Amino acid sequence: MGIGRGKLLLFGEHAAVYGHPALGLATADHTRVTASAVEPESSPMGVVRVGNTKLPLIIRGVEDAYINVLYTAVERTIETARISFRELEAFSAGLQLTIESTIPTASGFGSSAALCVALARELVASGRSGFTETWQIANEVERIFHGTPSGIDTGLSLSNGLQALYPGPPALPTRQPVSSGSFALVYGGVPRVGDTRSLVAHVRQGMEASRSETVAAVDALGAIARTALSVCVTDAPAAQLGSLCSEAQAHLRSLALSTDELEQRIETARRSGALGGKLSGAGGGGAWFAVYETPEAAREGFLHVRREIPASERSLLRVLAVSGSDVRTIE
Ligand code: PMV
Question: Which of 138, 247, 282, 288 can bridge 116 by disulfide, Cβ–Cβ 3.0-4.6 Å?
Answer without folding.
Answer: 138
